[in-house]
Amino acid sequence: MYRHLLMLLAAAVTTTFSGCMQQAPATKAGNYVLVVHGGAGTILRKSMTPEKEAQYRAGLEAALKKGYEVLQAGGSSIDAVEGTIRILEDNPLFNAGKGAVFTHDGRNELDASIMNGNGLAAGAVAGVRTIKNPISLARAVMEKSGHVMMAGRGAEQFAAEAGIEIVDTAYFRTEARWQGLQKALEEDSIKAKLDHSYVPQQDPGIRHNDNKFGTVGCVALDNKGNLAAGTSTGGMTNKKYGRIGDSPVIGAGTYANNRTVAVSCTGWGEFYIRNVVAHDLSAMMEYKGMPVEEAGKAVIKKVGDLGGDGGLIALDKDGNMAMPFNTEGMYRGAVTKDGKIEILIYKD
To answer: Which end of the chain lies in a sparser environment, N or C, as judged by fewer CB atoms within 10 Å?
Structure first.
């Protein structure tokens, strides 16, 4: 009888413990509806003040909440992606829209792209200077033109005809970004003095390792099962010659396909273009049957093997997500079906 009582007690404890575990479950795979990133790079705890970290977390949270509200109201994944990225473009902390970095010539040149996983429609803009929210212009290219990509002054002319908000170039200027350009120019000058073979005007900004980060992006899955992805950036600090990175390149920096996954990338764009990273991730899932996390790590390894760095966010058709990167940190966050928000910054 004593043994029987012990067995009953053990069963009761087990049941109670199981019940507690069920009341506070970990986030389950397949439970995500929207993921964002705000750039990758040398993001270290020791270099971050509590105030600055709080600002970044608040910025990511505001973007996630906006996207989640759209989805909860029955909006499409495209609506959620555009709305989320507009929040980040309006936040001067991030290298997109208001917070865009300066080119070598002291201008802000913006790139963006968006893609609908339902039917593979896509739109992109590159090198625009007067568009308040480039992601909205990219969507207009997708929905109101017969093209996929527009660039420069032609894209701005189309923006005016499509009713997209246009601002004076002074809108994009922030003192922090201006000082970032001055630092990059000073580094050019110092390197030129130390190394006579170094020619600053032939350097498109890529020697300044952290000048290429800060891109924002979003991937979303709506209640109809449609995926979408979008990316927006100011490019590299001190970039020259009208340089364009991967952000507006469909298949390199942005890709979405309802059969597989939605992807948005951030990092050293030249390597993402050469590796066709966003589409490669989708192809690994479609042709090799790889899960999104495994495919994400594989494509980032390819970037690293060639000498590039950065990260990406990916959300598959079943609500599984991945956030691989090979830098010290990446501003990133996600929200689940039930509204649980997760925000991460550092590698650990």
So the answer is: N
